[in-house]
């Protein structure tokens, strides 16, 4: 069976706070809010077509996630984000010859940005 990844979703404790963080800090664009009358789920889509979603959950602390994004210029993104987000892992060269750094969203979910 041939499959393609449709989207990745992580749980957050405060949907509006997280929407603001993902749009203001990372520059993601909101694609969908569901249900429209009282959103509990927000889907973002990047220029490259990657789909990423957040969903409000009662106790998301036990369900923290980690997502890695490939980027074209990790050094430029590091300069842009390092003072705006909690850094979990500084920019470095990995043992498998990529460069990456990791930040955390307001709920402690880890987001890594990788080039190489």
UniProtKB/TrEMBL annotation:
Residues 4-116 form the VOC domain. It holds the Pfam family Glyoxalase. Signal peptide: none annotated. This is VOC domain-containing protein. It comes from Halalkalibacillus sediminis.
């Amino acid at each position: 069976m041939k499959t393609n990844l449709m989207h990745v979703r992580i749980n957050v404790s405060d949907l509006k706070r997280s929407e603001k963080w993902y749009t203001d800090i990372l520059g993601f664009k909101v694609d969908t809010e569901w249900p429209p009358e009282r959103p509990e789920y927000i889907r973002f889509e990047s220029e490259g077509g990657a789909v990423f979603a957040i969903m409000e959950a009662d106790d998301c602390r036990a369900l923290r996630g980690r997502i890695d994004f490939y980027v074209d210029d990790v050094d430029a993104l590091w300069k842009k984000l390092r003072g705006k987000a909690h850094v979990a892992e500084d920019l470095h060269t990995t043992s498998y010859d990529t460069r990456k750094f990791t930040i955390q969203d307001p709920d402690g979910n880890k987001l890594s940005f990788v080039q190489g």
